[in-house]
UniProtKB/TrEMBL annotation:
EC number(s) from the headed UniProt entry: 2.7.13.3
InterPro entries in the record: GAF-like_dom_sf, HATPase_C_sf, HATPase_dom, His_kinase_dom, Sensor_HK_TwoCompSys, Sig_transdc_His_kin_sub3_dim/P
Domain of life: Bacteria
Molecular function in Gene Ontology: ATP binding; phosphorelay sensor kinase activity; protein dimerization activity
Secretion signal span: none
Any Pfam family: HisKA_3
SUPFAM superfamilies for this protein: ATPase domain of HSP90 chaperone/DNA topoisomerase II/histidine kinase (SSF55874), GAF domain-like (SSF55781)
Gene3D superfamilies for the chain: 1.20.5.1930, 3.30.450.40, Histidine kinase-like ATPase, C-terminal domain (3.30.565.10)
UniProt keyword Transferase, yes or no: yes
EC category: transferase
Organism the protein comes from: Actinomadura darangshiensis
Protein name, entry field: histidine kinase
């Protein structure tokens, strides 16, 4: 048995039980620091006060529950964190004691007593600091992992919002510019038709062809505007937007049937930027089935577990050989697959494409639900 454990065991089994209770009470950093401070005061004979300061992620300041941050090098706790060794208080009524972990000082235990601090109390605090170093290290790594996860989620949200804002801007510019000019062109062609002299079949035919081309261009412009920013996604949510996408996919010819299955109510659980990404992936996958697969039927399935959402788009089209595509020097990321993958990866997810000639194509996107990812910061103590 090591000397610190011998010292702790000498204080009785009740102390060992309290240590075990605190060590197993969770991995949230502020509550753990508070419980450790309470344990120190309860276990020592003369100590009346204890603060536990933990080094922040950037290793610049010490943070304590309900206390202002302490910069490294300032005050007793800051000095101990900077130099890595204990420092008695000048009045002899306590000390600041380092907690070493991950090759650095990760925390400082600052204790005080009403009178001169007994050496055995300081030895007890030093032993507890060493014993709780792995626990505080685990708490600190978990906090760091969560902060980085939240930062990544915020970045992804801002990136999706910026992209959608740009698409909305383009949609407005197309509507106010190209669409209006095409409408004006249609009016002028109608006027030209009325002004055309009688018995001028060739001129009339040219004007009619020009009007037809103008109408086609206007229809394509409206479709582009709707694709850039589908209002139904904002107004009714993801489920309704996917149902609308399915209806519109079969509208031009009725030759393709798209079925949509949504398991559970997702809108309340998914942030707007995740719904937007899933809609865009579904839009691209269904569009690929229409344009390239010669498919008769497309199944679109949206489902979720406790921490992620899964979108599957499967068609019964011609399919293709990914191996042959690679052998010809073409990437399987063509036909918009790269964009789908980038959207999913931006949100910490993935897109997988499976296909065989004559067996159709399946696109599967899996995206974690923000705030529900399983954070695994590393192996904890004693594991």
């Amino acid at each position: 048995m090591t000397a610190p454990l011998e010292l702790l065991a000498g204080r009785g089994t009740d102390l060992l039980v309290r240590i075990a209770d605190v060590a197993c009470s969770g991995r949230e950093l502020p509550p753990m620091a508070e419980r450790l401070a309470e344990l120190v005061v309860r276990s020592a004979r003369a100590l009346t006060f204890c603060d536990v300061y933990v080094l922040d992620e950037e290793e610049r300041v010490l943070e304590g529950p309900g206390r202002p941050p302490v910069p490294l090098g300032e005050g007793d706790a800051g000095w101990v964190a900077a130099h890595g060794r204990s420092r008695p208080h000048p009045d002899g009524r306590g000390a600041a004691i380092p907690v070493h972990g991950d090759g650095i000082v990760i925390a400082v235990v600052d204790v005080r007593s009403a009178g001169p601090c007994p050496p055995d109390d300081l030895a007890l605090v030093t032993a507890l600091a060493g014993l709780f170093a792995p626990v505080l290290s685990s708490c600190r790594r978990l906090r760091t992992a969560r902060e980085r996860e939240h930062a990544a989620e915020r970045f992804a949200e801002r990136a999706v919002e910026a992209q959608e804002a740009e698409w909305s801007r383009l949609s407005r510019e197309i509507h106010d510019g190209i669409a209006q000019r095409l409408a004006s062109l249609g009016f002028h062609l109608s006027a030209a038709e009325r002004a055309l002299p009688e018995h001028h079949p060739e001129g009339l035919a040219q004007i009619m062809m020009a009007r037809r081309l103008c109408e086609l261009a206007a229809a394509e412009t409206r479709a582009a505007i709707g694709g850039l920013r589908p209002p139904v996604l904002d107004d009714l949510g993801l489920s309704a937007a996917l149902a609308t996408l399915a209806r519109e996919a079969g509208a031009p010819s009725g030759a393709i049937d798209v079925t949509v299955t949504v398991e559970g109510e997702l809108e309340d659980e998914l942030p707007d930027h995740v719904q937007t990404a899933l809609y865009r992936i579904a839009q691209e996958a269904v569009g690929n089935s229409l344009r390239h697969a010669s498919a008769d039927h497309v199944d679109l399935l949206l489902e979720h577990s406790s921490d992620r959402v899964r979108l599957t788009v499967a068609d019964d089209g011609a399919g293709f050989s990914i191996r042959d595509v690679l052998a010809r020097g073409r990437r399987p990321d063509s036909y918009g697959l790269r964009g789908m993958r980038e959207r999913a990866e931006l949100l910490g997810g993935r897109v997988a494409v499976t296909s065989r000639p004559g067996a159709g194509t399946t696109v599967e996107a899996v995206i974690p639900i923000p705030g529900r990812r399983r954070v695994t910061p590393g192996r904890g103590p004693g594991r």
